[in-house]
Design brief:
Length: 235
C-alpha cells in the first residue's frame, strides 16, 4: 500500500477499524455495507480496499460520481432508515461481513431499532458506528457543524451506553468504544485551520472535532464470529 493510501486510512477512524478487520479476515472478498454512502464514499473505499465488495444504502443519492454509480450497480439500496419494514425487507439476512454507519444514526428517530435490524444482516464480522457526542450540544455554533444543532437534519442525540447496550442485546461483543479522537488529525489541527482560512475564507467546525471530542464511536463484532475465530486459533 502506498503512502497516500496509508495516510488516508490513518486520517479516517472508520477506515482504521475496517483495515484491522480485513487484516484479520481470511476470506478473499469482504462484503461491506456502507450505511450513508454519499460524498464519493464508494470510489474512495474501493480504492483503499480492493478486497471490499461494496454495497451502499442511503435515503437518497448524494454527491456520487459516475465511478461511484458503477461500483453501486445492483448493490445500491435506496431506503428510508426510519421505515423499519422497508429496511428489513430490502437487505438479505446473514449476508454482510462488515457494516459502517458513520454520522447517520443522529439523522434517524429509531436508531436502536435500526441497529437491531442491521445486526441480522451481518453474517459474521463487525459494525463500526460513529455519531455526535451528547456533549456536542454544549459546543459553540460554527459553520460545518460543531454544535449538534448546527445541522438542521440532526433529529436525535444518542450516547455510547444506548448504542452499546443495543448491540450487546443483539449478541455482539464491544471491542472498542469511546470518544473518537484521531491523533494524526489532532496534531495537524493548526494546519487544518490555516487550510480552511486559505481555501474557504472561514473555519469550519470539523477542524476542531478531534480536539473537543465532537464524536463518539462503537466498534463491535458478532459473538459467534469471535467464537469461530477463537476455535480456529486453538486448532
Amino acid at each position: 500500500m502506498n503512502m497516500v493510501k496509508r495516510m488516508r486510512i490513518l486520517f479516517t477512524p472508520k477506515f482504521l477499524f475496517l483495515n484491522k478487520f480485513i487484516n484479520s479476515y481470511s476470506e478473499d472478498k469482504i462484503k461491506l455495507l456502507d450505511v450513508g454512502c454519499g460524498n464519493k464514499s464508494p470510489s474512495i473505499t474501493v480504492s483503499l480496499f480492493p478486497k471490499v465488495e461494496y454495497f451502499g444504502l442511503d435515503k437518497e443519492e448524494y454527491n456520487l460520481t459516475n465511478e461511484d454509480k458503477k461500483i453501486l450497480e445492483n448493490k445500491y439500496f435506496l431506503v428510508d432508515l426510519d421505515n423499519l419494514s422497508e429496511l428489513d425487507n430490502a437487505l438479505p439476512n446473514n449476508y454482510f461481513d462488515f457494516i459502517i454507519m458513520s454520522h447517520v444514526i443522529e439523522h434517524t428517530r429509531k436508531g436502536t431499532e435500526i441497529l437491531e435490524i442491521l445486526s441480522k444482516k451481518l453474517k459474521v464480522g463487525g459494525i463500526y458506528i460513529e455519531f455526535p457526542s451528547v456533549k456536542s450540544i454544549s459546543f459553540p455554533s460554527m459553520p460545518g457543524t460543531l454544535n449538534f444543532c448546527d445541522d438542521s437534519n440532526h433529529v436525535r442525540l444518542y450516547d455510547i451506553k444506548e448504542v452499546a447496550n443495543t448491540l450487546i442485546k443483539c449478541e455482539f461483543k464491544i471491542i472498542k468504544a469511546g470518544t473518537r479522537r484521531n491523533y494524526v488529525n489532532l496534531i495537524l489541527t493548526p494546519l487544518k485551520v490555516i487550510y480552511h482560512l486559505i481555501k474557504y475564507r472561514q473555519i469550519y467546525g470539523s477542524a476542531f472535532w478531534d480536539i473537543l471530542g465532537f464524536a463518539e464511536f462503537v466498534y463491535t463484532v458478532k459473538i459467534k464470529d469471535t467464537q469461530i475465530r477463537s476455535k480456529s486459533n486453538e486448532q
